[in-house]
Design the sequence.
């Protein structure tokens, strides 16, 4: 019992306070249940036991506040029959058990007065300023009395993936949406909170004086909805239909964007529920139902080592495919070497796998435990040497090669972006997966992803249709222009406009461009010494020259040679503002000007030659600036006349 208490508390602190995972949810639940059985059998509960301790002490610098009444945990089960027994002859409200951060809101005079986190159940943190920037909290409501309600702050899976994709350091990435939400809600600067798309779902009304709720929790939920709150989805159930409704909820979970680890039942009859009182930890009017993990036994085929842009190489377990929660699963992230060692994972081991929250594949148990071996000495992407490092509480593997392709995902993301090769369907996250698996090592490899068609179609988030769409987008991107290709290389400071100027200067001759001296480039109007040096230095590297040659073999670049006298706008600087009529959009106007040698900038300065605005009499800031500087303001018609002269 002492060992279990210490281990579970250490795992809890790592998960809730440090956003780290030192054991799986399945393993935590198994050990928790084992401890609880021992306590029941012996009639002893040790000090600090996680079965009686509610939450952890708050650690931030946010103000603290004691709750008027303790916020208790819920007793839980994975057995529907226990729910039926709990219901008896009563009606209950059943709703999602959301996996976020519980918040208490107080309204006075119809305005949001205070927001406090659950904290340790007794004392929470005041996060009123942060709550005001949640995506869906009403700042004013119709009810003017004092209202106290509870709900869950959550961040959806899509926002979780978006925010994690923006974090370069692998160690800084959030492990799951709950940890991200906890960190977002408890920020000292609510500008950060506002960017995180936190949503609040009300699940319980604590107090609203002077309102007749007809002694019904369901009525309270509908009343909260009428006040402008987004309430958690709920159903009214009895013992006769509870099993049917549990199944309906479980069928929806894969379509939900928010994380949920089960359901909550609370008696609809408010007075009856209050009359039951509570234990030291649980209220007696509520019950939590956790999804029963669907376990499948399979064989571990290999550990795939997946490098990231920070050099961290994540272990991924590959096993014989099994059906879990209606889908075929063949891989699960193991997170780090410490978890591998805890599970004693070896190739050929018999393992049990499940889906955490019915969504994320994980290893529950290793039945044969042959031991960890063959941690790679070289990076699977670049072949560079690797090193095992102790990062906080866990051991992790790193690639030591600074030139590893996995560390240059941003370069590949630029290559496929709209102004470059414009390949739809290749997000940074997808590129990172392709690079880490060795499918893409240089730009030309993107045009040979058909070699891995089978593997890509079996990847999570892909299928036959999405692969075909990607293949079509790649094929379409083969036909492009040379300036787009030069821009796509990611040469420091070389934008699309600079690339167009350089291509025109060298008459679209790639060989001349690659061998151009810095002095020759420096003489091109609009390039300058810094860009000239960056361009020349890039092609001084023979590896870059060879990679461009291989890339050009994959592309179709129609001949594009400007005719004599076609650079009518050479040396002129333009600014475009307002709506356009003769072109599809301002981008087309920009491309037309640049094709004739002109340059387009974003703001009016003394170096601007013309401002393009169909509303020449507008009092906009750009028109005012142009008038102050004596810069002519042209309509589209006047621009076209200038071009056609």
Sequence:
């Amino acid at each position: 019992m002492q060992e279990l208490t210490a281990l579970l508390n250490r795992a809890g602190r790592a998960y809730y306070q440090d956003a780290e995972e030192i054991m799986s949810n399945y393993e935590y639940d198994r050990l928790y249940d084992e401890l609880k059985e021992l306590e029941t059998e012996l009639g002893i509960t040790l000090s600090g036991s996680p079965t009686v301790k509610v939450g952890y002490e708050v650690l931030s610098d946010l103000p603290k506040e004691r709750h008027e009444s303790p916020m208790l945990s819920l007793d839980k089960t994975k057995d529907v029959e226990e729910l039926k027994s709990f219901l008896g002859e009563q009606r209950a409200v059943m709703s999602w058990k959301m996996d976020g951060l519980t918040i208490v809101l107080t309204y006075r005079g119809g305005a949001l007065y205070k927001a406090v986190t659950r904290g340790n159940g007794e004392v929470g943190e005041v996060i009123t300023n942060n709550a005001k920037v949640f995506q869906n909290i009403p700042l004013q409501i119709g009810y003017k009395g004092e209202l106290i309600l509870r709900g869950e702050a959550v961040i959806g899976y899509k926002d979780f993936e978006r925010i994690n994709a923006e974090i370069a350091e692998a160690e800084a990435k959030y492990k799951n949406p709950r940890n991200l939400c906890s960190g977002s809600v408890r920020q000292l600067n609510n500008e950060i909170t506002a960017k995180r798309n936190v949503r609040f779902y009300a699940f319980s009304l604590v107090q609203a004086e002077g309102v007749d709720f007809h002694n019904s929790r369901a009525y309270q939920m509908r009343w909260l909805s009428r006040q402008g709150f987004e309430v958690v989805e709920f159903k009214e159930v009895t013992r006769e239909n509870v099993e049917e409704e549990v199944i309906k909820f479980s069928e929806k979970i894969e379509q939900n964007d928010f994380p949920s680890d089960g359901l909550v039942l609370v008696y609809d009859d408010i007075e009856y529920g209050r009359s039951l009182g509570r234990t030291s930890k649980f209220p007696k009017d509520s019950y939590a139902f956790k999804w029963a993990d669907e376990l499948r036994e399979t064989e571990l085929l290999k550990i795939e080592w997946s490098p990231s842009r920070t050099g961290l190489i994540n272990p991924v377990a590959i096993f014989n495919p099994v059906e879990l929660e209606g889908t075929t699963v063949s891989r699960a992230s193991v997170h780090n070497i410490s978890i591998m060692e805890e599970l004693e994972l070896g190739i050929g081991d018999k393992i049990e796998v499940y889906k955490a929250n019915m969504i994320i594949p994980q290893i529950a148990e290793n039945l044969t435990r042959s031991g960890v071996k063959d941690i790679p000495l070289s990076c699977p992407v670049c072949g560079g040497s690797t090193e095992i490092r102790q990062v906080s509480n866990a051991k992790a593997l790193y690639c030591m090669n600074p030139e590893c392709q996995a560390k240059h995902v941003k370069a590949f993301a630029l290559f496929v972006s709209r102004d470059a090769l414009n390949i739809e369907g290749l997000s940074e996250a997808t590129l990172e997966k392709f690079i880490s698996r060795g499918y893409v090592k240089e730009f030309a490899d993107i045009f040979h992803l058909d070699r891995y068609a089978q593997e890509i179609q079996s990847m999570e988030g892909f299928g036959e249709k999405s692969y075909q769409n990607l293949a079509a987008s790649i094929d379409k991107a083969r036909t492009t222009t040379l300036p787009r290709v030069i821009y796509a290389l990611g040469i420091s400071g070389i934008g699309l406009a600079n690339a167009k100027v350089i291509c025109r200067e060298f008459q679209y001759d790639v060989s001349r461009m690659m061998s151009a001296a810095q002095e020759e480039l420096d003489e091109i109007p609009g390039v300058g010494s810094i860009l000239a040096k960056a361009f020349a230095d890039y092609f001084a590297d023979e590896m870059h020259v060879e990679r461009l040659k291989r890339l050009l073999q994959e592309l179709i670049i129609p001949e594009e040679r400007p005719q004599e006298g076609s650079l009518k706008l050479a040396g002129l600087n333009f600014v475009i503002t307002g709506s356009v009529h003769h072109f599809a959009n301002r981008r087309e106007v920009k491309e037309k000007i640049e094709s004739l040698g002109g340059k387009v900038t974003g703001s009016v300065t003394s170096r601007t030659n013309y401002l393009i605005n169909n509303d020449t009499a507008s009092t906009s800031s750009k028109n005012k600036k142009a008038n102050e500087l004596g810069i002519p303001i042209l309509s589209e018609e006047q621009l076209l006349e200038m071009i056609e002269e």
User: Anything to note?
Assistant: The chain is about 35% helix and 20% strand. Residues 54-60 have pLDDT under 50 and may be disordered. The first strand starts at residue 64 and ends at 66. The first helix runs from residue 2 to 16.
